[in-house]
Amino acid sequence: MDLLTLTLNEERRVTLTAVLQGTGGEYHKLTKRRPAVLVLPGGGYDYCSERESEPVALAFAKAGYQAFVLRYSTGAFKDWPNPMEDYEQAMELIRGKADEWNLWPDKLAVIGFSAGGHLAACGATIGRNRPDAAVLIYPVTTQESADMCGAGMPAPVEHVSASTPPCFLAATRTDMTVPVLDSLRFEQELVRYGIEFESHIYGYGNHGFATGDPYMNDTPVCARTADWIPDCIGWLEDLFGVPTFTGFEDPVCPRTVNADRADVLSLDCTVAHLLRQEGEAAELLTPVRSALDRAVAEYSDHGRNVEPLFRLRTLREMLRRIGFPAEDLGDLDDALKKIPNPEKA
């Protein structure tokens, strides 16, 4: 294991600490590269918390990740966009050294706590260098909370879009520093744009529970808060794939729950979205409409209305459920993917 500390901005005391591990040899599951995480500690932009720095990086290093900690601009240098510039520089450096540091540049997650969660959420929503996943732990996301950190700081919740990467969120219901609503409102926007996410809102505990270990907290905190780390690692494996002897298995978790905002149409769009289409798409879907009408009528005869499911379920899933010929699905999907999505956002 190599431990490096690089100075990114001497005047602002910005540093990037790297916890780097080997590949191949005894690490049979990691024959070429590792996934990576960039940790952004909290501290209200006044300082970078030590409890949310190396202890977090080492927990992910233990799980096989190359791990980095960015101590970004704080205190007298916290004015926006200084911290954002630090984040961009760190992301560019990590991806630029992917070969040297043995990491996958497309399996890089950012993990942010509180103000660091604000910075991570900004990176995920308005950053030039978007992470492949964002882990937001009791994050600042609303304008009201961002204003408490400093003037001129953006509200990430207002910038969620179809380009936002999958997110993992954790917070406590009784957080009296950053309200749980910051997490919930961010999640609402992720739902709006169909972005994949996982959320854990624990019953009680003060702000800043870090890893959730008892020695990290001087007030009672729900014992299950410590589960966020293994839960997050499991979620990242769903998203990035599980490392095996021969490489990474295919991910089981897509970055979006449907393709309603993709560049082109496909069977992975929701039924409602596809049924709104006109022209060539409508013609392709003529046999599908007939099959869906028959299914609706059949369920109606048994006293059930399934049409509300059209808003949530993809056409692929719905057609499989009603027994649409499997051999026709591939051809239909290929044809739809040749049609631009007029409602892409």
Could you provide a short overview of the structure?
The protein has 345 residues and is an alpha/beta fold. The chain has helices spanning 54-62, 82-96, 115-125, 143-149, 180-192, 228-240, 271-275, 279-284, 286-301, 315-321, 326-336, and strands spanning 2-9, 14-20, 34-40, 66-71, 103-113, 133-137, 167-172, 197-202, 243-244, 247-248.
Ordered list of secondary-structure elements with their pairings:
Elements: E1 2-9, E2 14-20, E3 34-40, H1 54-62, E4 66-71, H2 82-96, E5 103-113, H3 115-125, E6 133-137, H4 143-149, E7 167-172, H5 180-192, E8 197-202, H6 228-240, E9 243-244, E10 247-248, H7 271-275, H8 279-284, H9 286-301, H10 315-321, H11 326-336
Parallel strand pairs: 3-4, 3-5, 5-6, 6-7, 7-8
Antiparallel strand pairs: 1-2, 2-4, 9-10
Q: What does this 3D model show about the protein?
A:
By secondary structure, this protein is an alpha/beta fold. The protein contains eleven helices and ten strands. The strands form two sheets. It has an eight-stranded mixed sheet, sandwiched between helices. A two-stranded antiparallel ribbon has the order 9-10. 42% of the residues are buried.
